[in-house]
Design goal:
The protein is of the alpha/beta class. Helices cover about 40% and strands about 15% of the residues. It has helices spanning about 40-55, 55-60, 85-95, 100-115, 135-140, 160-175, 225-235, 240-250, 250-255, 260-270, 275-295, 305-310, 315-320, 335-340, 360-375, and strands at about 1-5, 10-15, 20-30, 65-70, 80, 120-125, 180-185, 190-195, 200-205, 300-305, 345, 355. The two termini are about 20 Å apart. The model has no long low-confidence stretch (mean pLDDT about 95).
Length: about 375
């Protein structure tokens, strides 16, 4: 289950001796909108139940577990856990750090627990993957003030995607996951980079919130904090104005009026200078993180592109690595352009480092972590 504020995405996976396979999936949209028949998340779960029952899959095999994506687990949750009242309280406590995400995640959990009271429910946290960050990577150089709603530090996000990429690359290379050194770029409307050493996250571009790091669709990424002070002192901007500017009016949208990379690339083909400048800034920031994380990973096994842009925009992949042969990155233009899905390599023959593309498969990763947790009994 991936429960957002106005949508609920779900997949039903069947377990077999050879692994998991998707047997049914769906999406409930427009939750809570005035003209929608789905007024709340309990209504949405009702639609999911109806769809699953109509599919016939639950007649032949019982529902063994329900895995839920939870965006923020704070410092408390470093792995997937079976949901009980203490876990619910922990998710609620972390809501101040992810006010747009944790509350709808909780609504989905509560609706599922109400309908499937006897089925184990598992929380899989986006932040858990990054609990291995060293202090030098997660600590900000600010006063350690007490009494705040949550500890101010780097948490990182997209952890379920990064965990999935680690799993996929381990299977592809036939190597244990804890031996892998990877530089992963999750590029979608939200975007972040992650350095993985010996299978563990050691650096990531998002921070205490998902606003930090790379240029994104509507989010600014890293900016000088003094800009916020300037807006506050010169314009009297309040917290809500700052939130709107940084999270909804910035990024590619703020640079050229669109947060759709497909549209931006089309405009570049039509010689639109504003779109070209926006992509230049996007690529500049991306290359900054590639270089920084390459320095942290001298024994790098692969750089992996994932996410909607990472998978479907060969021009972005090409420009991101153009001229970086001194770092070991050499794209094969034909292989890059020919990539059509799944996990695959796009580097030039003889290149020092693999360059790969892979889908994030976040729902599958949630299902796998839920199944593994219940089979091992850890986290219960």
């Amino acid at each position: 289950m991936n429960s957002g504020s106005s949508s609920l995405k779900y997949e039903l996976h069947a377990i077999s001796p050879t692994g998991l396979s998707v047997v049914f999936k769906g999406l409930v949209e427009r939750i809570g909108e005035p003209t929608s028949s789905v007024q709340n998340h309990r209504d949405a779960i009702g639609q999911v139940v109806h769809a699953l029952e109509a599919s016939g899959h639950l007649e032949t095999s019982p529902l063994l577990a329900i895995g839920h994506r939870v965006v923020h687990g704070g410092e408390r949750f470093c792995r997937a856990v079976v949901i009980d009242e203490k876990v619910v309280e922990g998710i609620r406590a972390a809501a101040s750090l992810a006010p747009l995400h944790n509350p709808p995640n909780l609504l989905g959990i509560e609706a599922c627990r109400a309908h499937w009271a006897e089925v184990p429910q598992v929380a899989v946290f986006d932040t858990a993957f990054h609990q291995s960050l060293p202090v030098a990577a997660y600590r900000y150089a600010i006063p350690a003030l007490e009494g705040g709603p949550g500890r101010i530090r780097r948490y990182g996000f997209h952890g379920t995607s990064f965990a999935s990429i680690r799993r996929q690359v381990a299977q592809y290379l036939d190597r244990p996951a804890d031996t892998l050194n990877l530089l992963v770029l999750h590029l979608g409307n939200g975007a972040s980079a992650c350095a993985i050493r010996a299978g563990q996250s050691i650096e990531t571009s998002m921070g205490m919130t998902p606003t930090a790091g790379l240029v994104m669709g509507t989010r600014s990424g890293d900016i000088d904090p003094g800009i916020l002070l300037h807006w506050m002192m010169q314009e009297g901007a309040c917290a809500e104005v700052l939130n709107q500017r940084l999270n909804h009016q910035s990024g590619l949208k703020g640079l050229c009026g669109s947060n759709d990379m497909r549209e931006i690339l089309d405009r570049i083909e039509a010689k639109d200078p504003l779109a070209r400048e926006a992509l230049n800034i996007y690529i500049h920031r991306l290359r900054h993180f590639i270089g920084a994380y390459r320095a942290e990973l001298p024994e790098l096994d692969a750089l992996v592109f994932t996410g909607g842009i990472g998978e479907h925009a060969p021009k972005v992949r090409f420009e991101a690595l153009l001229g970086l042969s001194h770092l070991g990155f050499e794209l094969d233009v034909d292989r890059n352009d020919a990539y059509s899905g799944g996990i695959g390599e796009i580097q030039r023959s003889g290149a020092v480092i693999r360059v790969m593309v892979a889908p994030p498969l976040e729902e599958r990763e949630i299902a796998l972590q839920s199944a593994e947790l219940l089979m091992t009994g850890e986290g219960i």
